[in-house]
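Human: Cast an eye over this sequence-structure pair and say how the chain folds.
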Amino acid sequence: LPFGLAETEGVSEIIRGFSGYVDRIAESSVPETAEDDPQFIEMLSDILEDRVRVVTNLCRGVHEIRDAMGEQQYEGIRSEVDHILDRFFIKRIGLRFLLTHYIEAARNEPGTSGIIHSNVGVGSILRQEAREAVRICKDTYGASPDIIIVGDGQQRSSVEDGMAFGSSVHGNPDLSFDRAFTYVPIHL
């Protein structure tokens, strides 16, 4: 990594943690039967726990570089650092997606293929996440914006009431049904 990022305490901790993950996977036996899978799945689940605290430690590493360089000089390399972090997080998301898919595929539940679910009703997910966003904003800032959810099968109201209003993407004002489609709910 350029700019001394790999030598920072934060990034060094991530490198050690990820190296340990790679070693654990490389040293584990490849599951050949269904009976072998639970131990392998347990290891993957443990890796997903993120005990390395990736976001916190990357932030710490970037702050170490910024503090060492000074604000003005850091601004000269900021776009490159952002590009490096973007690439890292895209790869991390992909890896976590694949690990989670493998773990969830072992459950073999109807209407799913790993983390891919058919007939996902997005309305209830959107309302739940909107309530969580409102709660976080109120807890953090003492106020929250109004959130309007469109096309969730509810009629004319706000998130506060658990409802929504608007028109569909195709201009159809009939929002009396919940949109459902095949998707990965954790990435919605």
